[in-house]
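Q: Okay, next protein. This is CFAP65 tenth Ig-like domain-containing protein from Arion vulgaris. I've checked the sequence twice, so it should be correct. Can you predict the 3D structure?
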Amino acid sequence: SGREILLNFIGVTVAHTRPYIHFPSNKHSFHMMAIGEKNSHIQIYELYNGGAVPVTFSADVTSLSIIEKENFNHSIFECLTPHGNILPGQTMAMEWRFSPLEAKTYMVDVPIKVQDGEQAIITFTGVGYDPRVMRDSMVLTDGHESCHAPNIQTAKQPGQLGYLSLERISFGNLPLFSQVRRMIFITNMSKDRSIFFEWNVTSQKDSEYINIYPVREKIGPSEYKMCRVTFLATNVPAFYDLDLVCEISDLHEYTNYKRELAAWEVERDRQLNEFIITETDLHA
């Protein structure tokens, strides 16, 4: 008796050997920056390897040099990581600096080439503002209001084993080299089976800023476990948008999987190293 909502799902399939980077959009907007900043914050643009093979990418920064010359040799856009490698299923954050010279909107098109793959042209946009004009109307925010996803899960999924007390954490605006902690509770929804959880970061570099304890643990039926998430604001001023994956498995099935995997590895090593001599006339 409620309102009907039409959802349009779009997916991409690629060959097993094809290098592929998923670009959700051909446009990206940086956070607004004040003019006159000596050291602008580092901002990120994420690249996701949706294929089954490692990917090597490179960004053509020629257009950045052109816009720099048009602005009295001032680096409006600076790409700190114009190339790199991404493992299958992993994410890499391209680091950028946006340093506006005037209170206006800047735009630049940057081709990103995937080795042995396709090329995408991404339009990067940045808005500069004059803090003397904006004054208190330009208040720093933590980005919480810019994301419309709920903090907690609102609907149970079929076959779901457990759930998180929070699915999005905002650490707010932090002084450099400060540390802040948040708590997340993982609850086992089953009344008769134990579960096992394990945290993973989508990018290895994110481990420099964020830490979770415990990383993995088992939870008994109808019980819960508290995890401490610690964020350290290190290096240089930057905006962070980090993804963490919590994998939850049935403990019984997980134990069987680990046992079968260990047996398969033993058999694999035996077949690689063992040989049988079939000749019968060795002493002839």
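A: Here is a summary of the prediction. The CA atoms of residues 29 and 125 lie 5 Å apart. The chain is about 10% helix and 35% strand.
Q: Noted. On to the next one.
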